[in-house]
Design goal:
seven-stranded antiparallel β-sheet, 25 strands
Length: 602
């Protein structure tokens, strides 16, 4: 049984900077894909003639909770329109995906797993009582066809078998029927065993494989947590073992892994796919809820506050397919792609650079993060992510006012009709922690809340520091924020049409050319933290709410062999070629062009 449960969109609401972030998302690409992107607007899922596989379910998986978190009636009605259409095409035997009966055997049933998950999300938000019966029929049909051998898992369905457990667990909690456990066993038996792939993760290959695909691996980390109960297995924290291996050989400074598209090693000039960022966040959320282990919450914060905003433009109308730690330009490669299995445009900001899966899938990141702020178990509520939000449930109202992670003071206002226990997770990096003015030393504290109103004030300090990276490079961190040397960018706009899909402002494509120097090394270990006001764009690339001053000198860094717009993996020289100067570091998430893994001068 999971240690913690998620609140629904009816119970938890974002506020402060987090609500601004979600509203920006609703007003931009995520909130408008059904109006302008053919693969959503004219999808086969709703009777059109465009993509009828993963893109609509991906989009709904984020669009639905976004709509309900913001209580946006227009978005809610548009979500219902899609759900109504999808349900209307469900066949008598339960099959729901848009393909002909005779084509089912060749249809990759990853889409069955994904639409089941999206329908579960819709029910949790809408409480539409049609949905459990729809999911029941989908899963029963899936079980019958798999058991009979009419269909088998292959390709993406084989690699992502555990994703179906979101719906299986939902349905088992409602009806407890034994065939669901049998379905669970069939999926695992036919699915990919990632433990057998571990040797492939230690040395990146320029070869596309399902078992080194970064999105599959990001999803996979939660597989034991979501499946062990219905499989009748003991939880072993296998995720931690796999995480440590992935981190050692493919880790980045922002708690993600390189993958462009498949694992790409520890080079700061290899890419990380945006889909993997969104899926990694979801895995960390599930892992924390299941285990209550704070390590997953801390890793989640780092991904959410750094990797997610870094790879999406300030206005959230464009995004990259892959981001790089040291990214001095986002310019189409004129010849061979730098990336192992991605194309020449994968790092551009645009509508669907390289491939459109991220266009549909990235929008689950912020809404599901917001839904993870508070969790509960029985009469206990815990604040997992100390971001501005409010929860109302079972006679409790807990309001958190804060600008975290940009500053570290927290005001909880609690109104209770009954007594309950309230807990707060404190990050491991917190210093000088005070609770209601009293200094304490803990990584979680608990209050027994009485009836009436209670106010709790929490604050702590954070100190910027250098974290070692491979090849004797260094990254600056402060709390959950990673910092980079920002590089000025000239955004060159491209409006065009390709394969019937129009790119026009504001959802056109952009190349980013550097306008400032980037070839720096740290001159000393002095770091000075500066805080500013959080603006309308929380992770603004122009006016970030927190900065760090550092002393640097220029070095002869050099370019990657054969490329004009990619820095070398490691600098050619670490000897200073300029006088010392003070430079301002920006949060990684605010730096679209950046140097993040940097040496000290020799």
């Amino acid at each position: 049984m999971s240690k913690w449960n998620f609140f629904t969109t009816n119970e938890i609401k974002p506020s402060g900077w987090l609500k601004k972030q979600l509203m920006m998302q609703a007003e931009s690409l995520s909130g408008n894909l059904d109006k302008m992107w053919p693969d959503i607007k004219n999808s086969s899922w709703i009777g059109g003639d465009k993509e009828g596989w993963e893109r609509v379910p991906y989009w709904l998986d984020g669009f639905i909770p976004l709509a309900y978190l913001l209580e946006d009636e227009d978005m809610i009605s548009r979500a219902k329109k899609y759900i109504d259409a999808i349900i209307s095409f469900q066949t008598a035997d339960g099959w729901i995906c848009p393909c002909k009966d005779e084509d089912r055997k060749e249809y990759d049933t990853w889409a069955v797993q994904l639409i089941s998950k999206a329908l579960t999300v819709y029910y949790q938000c809408s409480k539409d009582e049609r949905i459990p019966d729809v999911i029941y029929k989908v899963l029963r049909n899936y079980y019958d066809m798999l058991k009979s051998g009419e269909i088998k898992l292959f390709n993406w369905g084989n690699a992502r078998w555990f994703e179906c457990f979101i719906a299986i667990n939902f349905m088992f909690d409602r009806c407890g029927e034994g065939w669901l456990c049998d379905l669970a066993k069939i999926l695992k038996e036919q699915g990919l065993d990632y433990n057998e792939a571990i040797p492939l993760w230690e040395r990146p290959l320029n070869r596309w494989r399902f078992d080194t695909h970064i999105v599959n691996l990001a999803m996979m980390l939660k597989s034991e947590a979501v499946s062990c109960e219905n499989l009748g297995e003991e939880y072993t924290d296998n995720a931690e073992k796999l995480y440590e291996i992935l981190k050692e050989y493919n880790g980045t400074p922002v708690q993600t892994f390189t993958g462009d598209e498949c694992l790409s090693g520890i080079s700061p000039i290899q890419g990380t796919e945006l889909c993997s960022v969104a899926e990694l966040m979801y895995s960390y959320e599930i892992l924390y809820a299941f285990t209550g282990d704070k390590k997953w919450a801390e890793r989640l914060e780092v991904v959410a506050f750094n990797a997610l905003p870094a790879t999406i433009s300030d206005d959230m109308w464009t995004h990259q397919y892959v981001q790089m730690s040291n990214q001095i330009a986002c310019v189409k490669f004129p010849g061979k792609s730098l990336f192992r299995t991605n194309g020449q445009e994968a790092h551009l900001f645009g509508l669907e650079p390289n491939f459109g899966c991220c266009t549909a899938n990235f929008n689950q990141g912020w809404p599901k993060f917001a839904l993870s702020a508070f969790m509960y178990s029985g009469d206990t509520v815990i604040n997992v992510l100390p971001v501005p939000s409010e929860v109302k449930a079972d006679g409790k109202r807990i309001k958190l006012e804060t600008d975290y992670p940009f500053e570290n003071s927290f005001k909880y206002t609690i109104e209770a009709e009954n007594e309950f226990t309230f807990k707060v997770r404190i990050p491991s990096f917190a210093e000088n922690l005070t609770v209601n003015g009293e200094k304490i030393n803990t990584e979680e504290f608990s209050f027994e809340i009485d009836k009436g109103e209670t106010e709790i004030n929490v604050s702590f300090d954070v100190t910027p520091y250098f974290e070692k990276r491979p090849c004797d490079l260094n990254t600056v961190k402060c709390g959950s924020l990673v910092f980079s040397i920002p590089i000025g960018a000239e955004w060159k706009m491209h409006e065009y049409e390709k394969d019937g899909v129009e790119r026009k402002f504001p959802y056109c494509d952009y190349e980013l050319y550097p306008t400032t120097d980037w070839n720096y090394a740290f001159a000393d270990e002095n770091l000075v933290l500066e805080r500013c006001k959080v603006g309308e764009i929380p992770f603004s690339s122009e006016n970030p709410p927190v900065k760090i001053k550092a002393n640097v000198q220029k070095i002869n860094w050099g370019l990657a062999d054969g490329y004009e717009n990619v820095c070398a993996k490691i600098p050619e020289s670490r000897v200073a070629i300029s006088d010392e100067e003070e430079i301002t570091l920006y949060p990684y998430g605010s730096s679209k062009l950046r140097m993040t893994e940097i040496p000290f001068v020799k």
